[in-house]
Amino acid sequence: MTESEFKAELKNLHGGYLFFGGEDYLKYMYSKEVEKQVLDGNFDEFNHIILYAEEFSPVALSQAIGALPMMAEKKLVEVRGVDYTSIKKDVWESIDDVLSTLSENDHTVLIIRADNDCFNAGKLPKNPTEMYKILTKHLTPVEFEFPTPARLKSWISRHFSDNGVKYDGEVFDKLVEVCGHDMWVLSNEIDKISCYVKMNGRDIVTYEDIDMVSCKTVEYDDFQLTNALLEKNKSLVFETLYRQKSSHEPPMAILASVVRLYSELLLIETLYSGGNNKSQIASALGMHEFRVGKYLRCIAGENPKKFTRAVELCSEVDIKSKSLSNLTSYIAVERLISSLCALFCR
User: Fold this and answer.
1) 85 and 164 part of one domain
2) Whole-model pTM?
3) Are the CB atoms for 193 and 166 separated by under 8 Å?
4) Residues 268, 292 within the same domain
5) For position 59, which CATH number holds?
């Protein structure tokens, strides 16, 4: 089940749900929505049972599921903060038995909230892990994926609006560049920025407000790598690449982000050399002007032939990597990035 499908089911909650996926903030927010739907305000302190990692066990879970609600039709049981990757096989067998009793206790709504770094669903849908199989035998899985840029932008706009301030869509790129994509971090930073703007008697957020108030967040992902390449920061390029490799980021995913970057740089350089300004390039390519501006700063003062050569290098590695092993692909990507740094990093 997707987030949007679960949202439609909020009015008719029953049984148990497994909240999993990359975006932990959304799991938290939808847990709050479930509370509103299940609890009626009568004896909520008794009808909302939360099991944290230190008190979680099959016995505790069984007692929580079986307990009758007090002066209400339903009660809510939540499991939070458990490291599911460390649970042993015999304990999983007991959990399986306990969860099978959920269908007999229709007065209970159960939410198992699996933090992203403490749960492994496997390669869905073809190759799920045993823990995922056991849980979804009894629970409806709800996957909370990282939002697309369009959805993230819409959410940021709503969050600012709820705080009584407005922001220009162009500020989105600036905010994400400084604060990253994590919705927990963005939520806190948006609140800080909103307070700062209103304290100064305004209701519109500017680039300067973000620089003044927000804390810089370093994200070690393909955005950080491409940003480091754009900034021609050799040490940060290899630090980021090392972290991506340590996190088992697929080499083809890293390569794809690098190929895309230099293909876009060559295209923008060609358009700029042809007499197009930043606004015209942004319009032609459907990019934000802020992003085009970053690309133009990278292009400034460079020999155009370098970008043609960069794309050639990327293409060569892209073709070769399709027949290489995972380990050999990492080596090929590292050599490519070394060549690109030799071209552009001073």
Assistant:
1) no
2) 0.61
3) no
4) yes
5) 3.40.50.300
